[in-house]
Structures are given as structure tokens and as C-alpha cells.
Amino acid sequence: MTKKNILLTGASGTVGFEALLQLIDKKIYNVTVFDKETKQSSLKLLPYKDQVNVIFGDISVAKDLEAIKDIDFVIHLAAIIPPVADDFPELAKKVNLIGTQNLVDQLEKHSPNAFLMYSSSISVYGDRILKPFIKVGDALRPSEGDYYATTKIAAEEYIQKSKLDYTIFRLAAIMGNHKISKLMFHQPLDTSLEIATPRDTARAFVNGIENQNELSKRIFNLGGGESCRASYEDFLQRSFTIFGLGKLNFPKHAFADKNFHCGYYADGDDLENIVHFRQDTIDDYFKMEAAKVSSIRKFVTSLLKTPIKWFLLKKSEPYQAYKDKDIVQMNHYFN
């Protein structure tokens, strides 16, 4: 039986690397990975060069994709994500939109029968504090200043207008290997948060290869389901406890009231019923996170929790706007 040719973009990313390992583990596909050459991507991907075809290049440069031919299935995960996407909107546009356009154009020319599975985002729905239950047919209203979401919407539109067969998965909050950044304070504490682990997310894409007919020309919301839900405040408090940071006792106005995203996927079971990807709960996620923190590290962190939280607070743009009485920014972050 002829092996299917699979292309995986963004293979060195958190979800991408999980997808790579799962594809290799199946031992039934010819896998090509496309990624930008960096120290990190080289360290992660080159050890598998005897098992997969590794192509390094810039997805925003059309000629770098010329070696991609005769592909049957594409898992397209390459993207610039926040906070980098928001700080460098032109870079986000180059990679997320122009890169996707370049990939689609190359596939149309040299792999016209390829099935494209695209990774979009819950951010396309915008602020859902007041209406947290989200369905695919809901209006796409990205929050003010969310350049990442606008690139995802534009890329979705380009894919849907292409000649390719496709499916689009709008990913919930994918939690794993996260670094603390200023985004921590952009999200309101009363946000309804549904997560998915990187390995479950990767499984949805990998399992999708064998379910093209049911996924074809459809958009799905990808989240972990009811067992992966919490308020953002509860989620953050559990995270702080794991790392030894104690109570979530930041001052008022440290966290924004609005203009972020996330929510609960009311129709998330639609994808689960087709590709059967869910194995982890939110408790599993916290067990995995706790396993990464040694008792010594947790003890040291607990001793330094006050200066650490002071340092974190310095990253809060809502709090800075409040302190500076910056009316424009206060209107952006607060009700």
C-alpha cells in the first residue's frame, strides 16, 4: 500500500512537535516538515532527519516552498503568536497570512488534491466575557488591537476561497510550555477558560488525516471539553500554587476587564465525535505542570514570591495605564 505524503509546518512549535512525534509513531506516513531554521528548530528536528524529510525555509518567501510537491495531507501550524504577533503586526501578517497564501498557492500548483488542515484560533471571536458559550457560526469580532486574530481571519478566508479541500480548527487556549508574559494581565480574571493540551491538540490534526470526508470544507472549534474548563482566576491561582507563588494577590486594575478572548466551546464535541482526540483533563494538565517543578525550586520560589510578583506586576500594561491615568489605554482595558 502506498504511503500518504504528509506535510507538517511549524513542527518545532509546542503543538507541532507533538504532532511530529505522533506521526512518526504511526509509522504509516511519509512525513515532510517545514520550519524556519533556528537553533531551537535544528535541535528539535534534526535528530529525526532519518525518519522524516526536514526542509528549512521561510514560509513568507514563496520560493522557499518550491520543494514541496506531491503532498496528500497538510497540517499547517506555522504561525507567529501573541505577544510577538501583537508587538510586531507586520511580522504576524508576513507569516500568518502571506505565509499561508504562499503555501496554498504552492499546493494548488503542485499538490492540487492535498487536504489542508489549518490551525486557527479562538481569538477570532473576540471578547466573550458576557457570552462565554461559543459556536462556529458566531460572528468573528476580534478584540481591539488583536492583530493575531485578524491575520487568522484573513488566512481562513484565503483558504476557503482556494481550490483545495480543507478543514479549519479554531483552537482554544492551548496550555503547555507557556512562558509568563504581559498577556497574563490582558486576560480578565472572570474569563471563562477552556483549555486543551498540546498532545490532545496534535492528536486532533493527526487523526484528521483518516477522516477527510467528515472534515471536508468544514470549520470546527477545538477545545478540551467540559473537563478542561475553569475561570481564568481559578486557573491562574492553581498555577501560582504549583510554582510556589502563593495567593493571587495583585492590586486592583492589574488585570484588564475586557478586550481579550476565550470562552467555552458549546459545539466542541462536534470535532471530538469525528477524530476522538480528547484524553487529557484540566487536572491532567496541572499534574504535568507540577511534575516539572522540583521541590527545591518551589521552596526557593516561595521564599521570593513577593519580589517575583512585584516583577510580574511591572509587566501589567493595564496597571501601568491606570497608574499613568492614560485615558485611551484605560478605555481599552477597563469597563
At the first level of CATH, the class of the domain at 4-177 and 196-225 and 265-278 is: Alpha Beta
> Separation of termini?
60 Å
| Total count of strands | 12
What is the alpha-carbon Rg in Å? 20 Å
Q: What percent of residues are in strands?
A: 15-25%
Structural class, by secondary structure, is: alpha/beta
Helix percentage: 40-55%
In the CATH hierarchy, what is the architecture of the domain at 4-177 and 196-225 and 265-278 at level 2? Answer: 3-Layer(aba) Sandwich
Mean pLDDT: 96
CATH superfamily of the domain at 4-177 and 196-225 and 265-278: NAD(P)-binding Rossmann-like Domain
Tally of alpha and pi helices = 15
Strands side by side in the biggest sheet = 3-2-1-4-5-7-10
According to CATH, the fold-level topology of the domain at 4-177 and 196-225 and 265-278 is Rossmann fold
Short note summarizing the structure:
By secondary structure, the protein is of the alpha/beta class. The chain has a domain at 4-177 and 196-225 and 265-278: NAD(P)-binding Rossmann-like Domain (Rossmann fold), CATH 3.40.50.720. Helices cover 42% and strands 16% of the residues.
Written overview of the protein:
By secondary structure, the chain is of the alpha/beta class. It has a domain at 4-177 and 196-225 and 265-278: Rossmann fold (3-Layer(aba) Sandwich). It is built from 15 helices and 12 strands.
Set down the secondary structure blueprint.
Layout: E1 4-9, H1 14-26, E2 29-35, H2 39-45, E3 53-56, E4 73-76, H3 84-87, H4 89-110, E5 115-121, E6 133-134, H5 147-161, E7 165-171, E8 173-174, H6 183-186, E9 192-196, H7 198-208, H8 212-215, E10 218-222, E11 229-231, H9 232-243, E12 264-265, H10 269-275, H11 282-291, H12 295-303, H13 305-313, H14 317-324, H15 327-333
